[in-house]
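pls design
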């Protein structure tokens, strides 16, 4: 009895889906490792589970090096591409194009080149969106760090002022205590003065 052909659709049973994910993930990583060794190529594999857990494999020293190399290659390819002007389309326009092409019954009739072109447009829009998001986050972090420095300086200034005020208060209390005690001022109490007068 041979294997039955697996229908390519989402597995509805959660435990079966998890088992399949685990087995196929291990198999994919194994195949990537074999391809790397047999063909002497650099491979980076990144997998996010449905729960958001990250699984990664890298045949090189680090995944970051391969991803940096990919980014440089992708940027050069984007610059050299004739579709740069089309990549500048607004994200809304791209979404409308994708939606209209996916809603039409002729999706299956799209050529490979049209699908590749559409995919490149989406990748470019996604890359630009992520770059802008990263830029805004970095600006926000810098602003927060500056605020933190200002608050720390303000806090230190307030602590010094409070210490000075407490010291002045202690000095003032000593003076007031000295004024309230007549012996410190060289006065004799009234009873002693009266007894001396008699």
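designed seq:
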């Amino acid at each position: 009895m041979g294997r039955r052909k697996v229908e390519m659709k989402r597995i509805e049973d959660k435990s079966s889906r998890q088992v399949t994910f685990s087995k196929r993930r291990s198999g994919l990583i194994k195949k990537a490792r074999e391809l790397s060794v047999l063909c002497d190529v650099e491979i980076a594999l990144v997998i996010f589970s449905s729960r958001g857990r990250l699984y990664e494999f890298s045949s090189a020293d680090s995944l970051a090096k391969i991803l940096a190399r990919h980014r440089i290659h992708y940027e050069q390819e984007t610059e050299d591409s004739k579709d740069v002007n089309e990549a500048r389309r607004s994200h809304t326009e791209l979404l409308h194009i994708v939606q209209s092409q996916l809603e039409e019954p002729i999706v299956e009739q799209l050529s490979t080149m049209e699908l590749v072109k559409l995919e490149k447009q989406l990748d470019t829009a996604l890359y630009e969106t992520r770059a802008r998001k990263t830029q805004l986050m970095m600006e926000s972090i810098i602003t927060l760090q500056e605020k933190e420095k200002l608050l720390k300086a303000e806090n230190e200034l307030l602590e010094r002022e409070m210490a000075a005020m407490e010291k002045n208060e202690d000095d003032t209390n000593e003076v007031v205590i000295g004024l309230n005690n007549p012996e410190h001022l060289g006065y004799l109490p009234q009873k002693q003065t009266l007894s001396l007068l008699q």
